[in-house]
Specification:
Length: about 180
Amino acid sequence: MLAGELYRAGDPELVADRARCERLQRAFNFEPDEDGRERVLRELLGGLGSSSYIRPPFFCDYGYNITLGDGVFLNFNCVVLDVVAVTIGDRTQIASAVQILAADHPLDVGTRASGLENGRAIAIEADVWIGGGAILCPGVTVGQGSVIGAGSVVTRDIPAGVVAVGNPCRILRELGA
């Protein structure tokens, strides 16, 4: 799974990992104390940079495949399907209801019907701003300093230093230095 190869989500080890994740998500989403939430995030995530903050509720598949850099902010109702690595760079701001979907499925109907799944890593570089309700599809990279407009559907890589919007997400303009 972690290598992006086909796997079965019903594998007992993965089922146990998702159950662990669900337990920790409940603890995080209903913990009233800020320090308590941070402790849960440190147990849930693969990496949590200093001064990073997630507003509950927050949802993910495994948690341990998510790495947040320093000063990252995720607003309410973010979803991260992290069957493979999801990396979010320093000082990135992610608005509410953003979906980061690294989980994927085979295009071949027979393979898909067999229950096999796969994933493709997502990388969000430093200083990115992702607007509310945006969706990042499997395998994309958003380059440093870029802005993704609210409601955009990112289906391919976005280079550094641009504003990109729409469905599918396209470059609107370059940002000045």
